[in-house]
Amino acid sequence: MTNPQDTVDLERAAAMSRADRDHLVHGFVPLSKHQKDGLPVFVRAEGIYFWDSLGKRYIDGLSTLWNVHVGHGRKEITRAVADQMDRLAYAPTLIGPTSEPTVRLASRLAEMAPEGLTRVVFTSGGSETNESMIRLVRAYWKAMGQPQRTRFVTLNQGYHGSSSGAAMLTGIPLFNEQMAPGLPDVHHMARPHCYRCELGKTWPSCQLACADELERLVEREGADAVAAFVAEPVQGVGGVIVPPEGWLARIREICDRHGILMVCDEVITGFGRTGSLFACAGEGVTPDVLVTAKGITSGYLPMGAMLFREEIFQTLLARADDAFYHGYTYTGHPVVCAAALANLDIIERERLVERAAEVGAYMQERLAALAELPMVGQVRGRGLIAAVELVRDKETRESFAVERQVPRQVYDECLANGLLLRVCGTHALAVCPPLVVTKEQIDDIVGILRNAITTVAKAVLS
Fold it and tell me: What is the model's pTM?
């Protein structure tokens, strides 16, 4: 669908497409496909919609990159950014002074976070925040007089970023094998994926055996060697894996018993995505460190934040050299903080967390109906994040051969029909619209996805 208000300049659009292919490298896009087919060049966005340089409209079914919670084109945020730039465009926090919006945002996050997470470090995004977390964990254990605690435990297929340290925490070989070997002493364990249990068990008779894998790993490595357990409360890039009830609480109990720091990576799930302000809080669990980004500004400007317990801060404070020698040039950038504050105002004023729970239940119900289609194996999710897993055989749950790229075929069919989604995991498509999405718009998303799956199934199952 095109927008009659847009004037399409075909010559300019063609020039942009050529320049994109000639100069820009898209990180997770197959290089040959980009060179051969090109990609849409977006020029405008409003609400849950994009328009490209040819005037075609797309539904933003992934909140662009899991992050545009409040939708596109919110003038409240652009006005806040412009006003802050007029008054104070930049002030560093790294070497001493700070700025008013930076302090206001830190205080507000401490109020919003699960109780006890009182200290804040700002970054420019999720990968940077996980780099900061690695440094904080190592610094903490050294300050505690236990420098041998260097090992991290994360989940298979967990995603924590693509920078060097964060990529080593990531349990997706495709994302980190190019630069391996990297950070030593990282152990990956079975994830809580009931549809494809990596331990060959069945819920609920398994009694959370996947959580107890942490217990066995600690026994093998030694509790005094393990620094932290790091996981997403709901895996995003790894396939939108929602743990069974009680899994996160069991992990918390094991960490407590062995004195291991528990880190929740809420880069994707933070600020209402799952129907709770933070997914861990929805499970009644408070981590020692919480990593977040994306929804903190709804993507209007780059930002991440690490929140951690007061006890960790006090331990660092007690050291003779009590500075936390870490940070970035744009840590706590006042303009970005102003954008975050305006974004959080919208989330609270429009009750978008509650909306994600209500409208998310409708989305989960509508998507669940896709399970009747021939190659849909499972639909899973929570709130306004979900995945549709595709299989060659529904009864045996056999997947398609990876080289056939069946999920990518469905993605391409959706894109051709004006819906932007994402392939996640190996065999699934993620659906993650802005929190302002309506039920009618969800119907449009599900309708396009249904038609795309049906079209591809006719080709690959015949």
Answer: 0.94
